[in-house]
Amino acid sequence: MTKDHSTLFDHPEGYGTVSRALHWLMAALFAWQFLSAILHGVDREMPAARFFWSWHMSVGVLLLVAVLLRGAWALINLGNRPVHTAGLLGTAARLGYLVLYLLMLAVPLVAVVRAYGSGRGLSVFGIEVLAGGGERIPALMAPANAVHGLLGWALLALTLGHVIMALAHAYLWREDTLTRMVRGRPASIARMD
What we know:
The protein has 193 residues and is mostly helical. It is 69% helix and 5% strand. It contains 7 helices and 2 strands; from the N terminus they run H-H-H-H-E-E-H-H-H.
């Protein structure tokens, strides 16, 4: 089975199984992260806030891994992915995706730098990933403290914009953009391959 005939790989008419699985896994993990940050900001002593926040770092590292996998998979599928529309809207979409990916990388990387700079190290789901040196390194912590939250909220705003545009494509403009990420390529195209 060639790459063009496999439903695992992307196709100009829709995303493959792997791209869609990574997309929706990341959507769920981002929902968790944004909810944990919002609850933490509202009342960090609230039981729900403490529960969600206790997993914030671990879920963030899991998201970083998913972003790296998704980026690598996108590069493998670069010539087969659905194309954006031409013109201003297509250019805005490409720029939006670029900024979205940069933020998806920057936000967790800054948190990892902050964890290292704290001297405590980094544990993910109870497994030590990065040993702490015991001493705080203010030169690492200060920039990370300054930008992690700000970049996180910018990522939330861009993510909401992404969702709004996907819904606008589907329900206002009656385009199949959302369908390509929900069901992949249309059944008629899959049968022709």
